[in-house]
């Protein structure tokens, strides 16, 4: 693949991109263009929203808590520099080949999809408001009821603890009174759960962020392998 920058081709902030590549490289070209565009959208990241990768009848629907800033600006899920979600998918065998965040629209090829509990991006979950968990759950519940995934895989214990009071009807530590924070250190609940959501089984995964010091990569991988076999 080669790139030529000249005044005769499409300009992007003074630069031009011409890609000579096969059809197999079109996704990479689109990612490059998206990354360039993201540089100019960065100041408005808080207004951006990710597109769900979802369709009816998925085997696994992954649910993150909310997009990070880089995911918002690139337009792809789990795009953080230190996020290990995509590596875990391939290393665990959930995805049959190595993939990156650029490939998030391919997940449906393997009966998987992605959405988020809260659509608004933020630098961290401590920036989220308690009411957003309530509203986010209402939207997520409707998606699960509409698309009927076999398994809802909650990516991060925080996601599970945020919606559990609503699932169980608990009155203490409800998201309306207390939003989860990165300081939560209660015992791990990683793995399959007894609850179901509109008939979908629930599986909790560790947060694959590089900032998650509660799990080693080996422990994360073990959880993803368990999901594959679930």
Descriptive overview:
By secondary structure, this protein is of the alpha/beta class. The protein folds into two domains: 2-45, no CATH class; 48-229, Uracil-DNA Glycosylase, subunit E, CATH 3.40.470.10. It contains six helices and nine strands, in the order ββββαβααβαβαββα. The strands form three sheets. A five-stranded mixed sheet has the order 6-5-7-9-8, with helices on both faces. Strands 1-4 form a two-stranded antiparallel sheet. The longest helix has 18 residues, at 130-147.
Structural features:
single chain; alpha/beta; Uracil-DNA Glycosylase, subunit E; two-stranded antiparallel sheet; 6 helices; 17% strand; disordered N terminus
- How many domain regions? 2
Q: Strand order, biggest sheet?
A: 6-5-7-9-8
Helix content: 25-40%
Rg over CA atoms:
19 Å
Q: Can you write the helix and strand succession as a string?
A: EEEEHEHHEHEHEEH
Structural class: alpha/beta
Tell me the fraction of residues in β-strands, as a range: 15-25%
Number of helices: 6
Largest sheet: 5 strands, mixed
Q: Could you give a quick summary of the protein structure above?
A:
The protein is α/β, with parallel strands linked by helices. Helix content is 32%, strand content 17%.
How does the SSE layout of this entry go?
Blueprint: E1 2-4, E2 11-12, E3 15-16, E4 18-20, H1 26-41, E5 60-64, H2 69-74, H3 85-92, E6 112-116, H4 130-147, E7 151-155, H5 157-168, E8 191-197, E9 200-205, H6 217-229
Parallel strand pairs: 5-6, 5-7, 7-9
Antiparallel strand pairs: 1-4, 2-3, 8-9
